[in-house]
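Hey, resending since the last one bounced:
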Amino acid sequence: MKVMEALYDGLIYPAEQVVPDTPRYHEAVKAVCEIMCDFEGSLDKEIYKRIRSLLDLEAESSDIMEMEFFKYG
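The structure tokens again:
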């Protein structure tokens, strides 16, 4: 299968394969994980699920925005 066909068919999603290799990125990811672990241990399960949903929606909207930016160069 050609690369363009694989991209079109959704078999390749480049944004998922890019991982920044900077200390600032790794520190931020670590901080988010620590905070989410704290929330999971201290918040009501339903509130924690809502926070996770909020973060998922935020990530999805950021992905969509980045794809639109990419279209326009």
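The chain has a mean pLDDT of 87.

Sorry for the duplicate.
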